[in-house]
Amino acid sequence: MRKSIVIQQREIDLDSGEIRYQGTQSCLEPKVLAVLKVLLAHQGSVISQEDLLNQVWGEVIVAPNALQRCITLLRKQLGDDDKRIIQTFPKLGYRLQMPATSATTPFEKYRQVWLGALFAVISLCGLVWLQYSAKPKHTYRLADLTPLTHDKAAQYGAAIHHDQIAYFQQNGDKTDLLLKDLRTQQTRTMQSQAHFYGSISFSPKGDSLVVGEVTFVEGVKCAQLRLFNLALQQSEVLLPCYKQFLHSAKWLDNHKLIYMSTDKIRRTELYLLPLTKHSPPQRLTLPEDIAKVYQFNVFNDALWLSGVDQADNNKLWQTQVEGEKLSSLNTIALTYPAADASLPLKLANGNVGNGNIVQSYQNQLFIYDQTQLITTLPLASPAALTLSAVNEHGALLATAGKQNMLVRERQWQNAFAQDTDITTSDFSDASGQYQPFGQAIAYLSNRSGRTQLWLQTAKQAKQLTFDAPVNSFVWQADGKALWFSSNGQLQHVSLQGIVTPFTVSTKIKQLLQHGSKPWLLALDSASHLIQIDTDTGKTAVLLPRPVNWAQQLESGKILFSPVDQGKLYQFESNQITAVEPLADIILQWRFFVRDNAVLLQDKQKNIWRYQPDLNKAEIVAQFDEQALFATDFRYEQSASEQLAMLSDNFAKYQANIVQIGVITAPITE
Question: Which domain of life is it from (predicted)?
Fold first, then answer.
């Protein structure tokens, strides 16, 4: 008999790693299971990280955070959000504290009672039960992760047809489109030195593929659909563009495509394109409850859409084309943001999944039947795995990529610029902010396994927060502490790392600014601009419309940019007006009030200083690709003007195409 234990009402098979909880099944990755076994062997005692590494990995050299990632995945599977079961002892190790019981003790007795009640229901509803039980039940686990590409250049976004994969390869500041035969390992270039938009799609016969290609029409950037004939090794513009980005086309059949059209402010529509001559594209009307579509895929005659509804709830929709509209067949609620998830894929019929839908988000697979989530599988990998295709045998193709960010400081003095990288880790560091009245720099980093708040001083980098991922932060106006948001909750942290929760009546999406009054400027979950009184916790809506970014002046006047345009406006006395000296510019990203002046970047790579009291704006510097997205400024106006800017910048993108095997087996009761 296989040995099982119960932790947190989760029945864990220590041979297979299967977990059963509230009617769902999932499976621990082998190394995560091995870590659990070691913790169980030392239950109630602290075991050092070194001993854990030696017992699980032996002599194999692994990434520094490999153990921490396994602990994080294990806590998630056990529902150990408050870290009471797997306890961390800094610089010492970990301890499994929660008693683990055999699955044949009290839990099994409860299970027997439950089964008795179930049989009573079955006796009354036999026919219904027989119909339900006829449906196959499966448990899933992941097999080997196999690299399909190995080049040092970033390779990503694969599509597959039989033994051929098409994918993008980064080539300097441009991209190549490649086709690889997995049998012969031969690769040929379909198009080089281009810019592509969206995903690649093979035709049902595998003799053509279509992709969105970035171009310029009358000086305006857009994306056209380009069709490649693989047999003739020729291509043609299938559908030209003007201002819109046409991309991510999927084949409804050999003669019709469905594609996405996205405008400059990221509004997206779906179109049906017949491939017969002189047939214009037809806009598809979405079901009324769909507000926005982020990803979609076509399986047989059904379209699966991933997006948000009118109430901003993340969902999957199964739809079908009826004339010029999509009719909804099924809806599934998502527990993660659709905007950040992969496109939905259909597991192949036959030996894997019986046609279930799978989507990836933050290195987890979410598997659904036609109506609900049936299981999740963790993907233990130092790289971010994003699904892009599934082959005919049910194996998944994914991009294993690392797109890290780094915090860079650029200093100008008398028009001379000098760059210094504030962070140089192998992880993603972003959102650097100068300490008011001090020399430290705070930033967000995922170097500890999840995004946390860090502090960089002249001597060292210090982690300030350790729990749920941090979404945003601002310095307290006096520079003695920081405010941050995590899972919509507002919290306060001292420079010594003492965290204090702060209760407010609304969920926080983004913190923008802290004032000395004291107040916090923030965006709520609907992106409305709010002000939080940090003495009382009371909130007030300042602008009941979606806002992208905002700052408040000492006078109380608010400067903001709406979500649908990169323009700067001012709000005062319940009136919204343009900022005239900056009316013709398009904002690059955010802007910041420093010493009652506003510093910002524009799309023409200029840095402006706007003085609201004088209603005057002037260009004080220029920036380039090495100082892309400003996150803070310092400005000193003296005999020799000095300007410093912190910015988020892309580190080198590393990516390869991998294949993830999925194994399924019937559940034996």
Answer: Bacteria
pLDDT one-digit tens code per residue, 221-258: 999 999 999 999 899 999 999 889 999 999 999 899 99
**Lookup: tokens for 209:** 């593929």
Question: What is the C-alpha to C-alpha distance for residues 55 and 42, in angstroms, rounded to an integer?
Answer: 12
Give the up-direction half-sphere exposure of residue 41: CA atoms within 13 A in the CB hemisphere.
Answer: 12
Q: Using CB atoms within 10 Å of the CB of residue 669, give its burial: 0 to 12 exposed, 13 to 18 middle, 19+ buried.
A: exposed
> Cβ–Cβ contacts within 10 Å for residue 142, how many?
18
**Phi then psi for 43, rounded to 5 degrees?**
-55, 130
* 245 vs 324: CA distance, rounded Å: 21
Strand order in the sheet with 472-475: 472-475, 481-486, 489-494, 499-502
Cβ pair 211, 195 in contact under 8 A: no
CA dist 325 and 507 (Å) reads 35
Look at the block and give the residue holding tokens 């082998």: 30
**DSSP letter assigned to residue 202:** E
Q: Over 90: is that where the pLDDT of 668 sits? A: no
Rounded to the nearest angstrom, the gap between the alpha carbon of residue 501 and the centroid of all alpha carbons in its chain is 25
CA distances to 337, 488, 572 from 468, rounded to whole Å, are: 16, 11, 37
Return d(Cα 373, Cα 315) in angstroms, integer.
11
Q: What is the pTM of this model?
A: 0.61
Element (H, E) at 472: strand 472-475
pLDDT tens digits, residue range 33-77? 889 989 888 887 888 887 888 888 776 656 556 788 788 888 888
Write the secondary structure of 411-440 as one string of H (helix), E (strand) and C (coil). EEECCEEEEEECCCCCCCEEEEEECCCCCC
Q: Which of helix, strand or coil describes residue 666?
A: strand
List 590's β-bridge partners, or say none.
none
d(CA 220, CA 587): 17
Residues 6+ apart with CB under 8 A from 501: 489, 490, 491, 492
Q: Are 154 and 41 in contact (CB under 8 A)?
A: no
Among 435, 330, 327, smallest CA distance to 372 is for 330
CA distance 67 to 32: 9
Helix (H) / strand (E) element for 12: namely strand 10-13
**Quick one: tokens of 537?**
């916790």
Cβ proximity of 609 and 599 under 8 Å = yes
H-helix or E-strand spanning residue 38? helix 30-41
Beta-sheet strand order (sheet of 452-456): 429-434, 441-445, 452-456, 461-463
Task: Judge whether 515 and 542 are in contact, CB under 8 Å.
Answer: no
CB neighbour burial string for 357-373, b if at least 16 within 10 angstroms, e if fewer: bbbbbebbbbbbbeeeb
Rounded to an integer, what distance in angstroms lies between the CA atom of residue 216 and that of residue 224?
A: 10
300: left (phi over 0), alpha (psi -120 to 50) or beta: left
Task: Report the pLDDT value the prediction gives residue 219, as an integer from 0 to 100.
Answer: 84
Rounded to the nearest angstrom, the gap between the alpha carbon of residue 193 and the centroid of all alpha carbons in its chain is: 28
Across the strands, what pairs with 518?
A: none
CB atoms within 10 A of CB 583: 11
Q: Which residues of 308-340 are buried (b: 16+ CB within 10 A; e: fewer)?
A: bbeeeebbbbbbebeeeebeeebbbebeeebee
**What does the alpha-carbon distance between residue 8 and residue 81 come to, in Å, rounded to a whole number?**
12
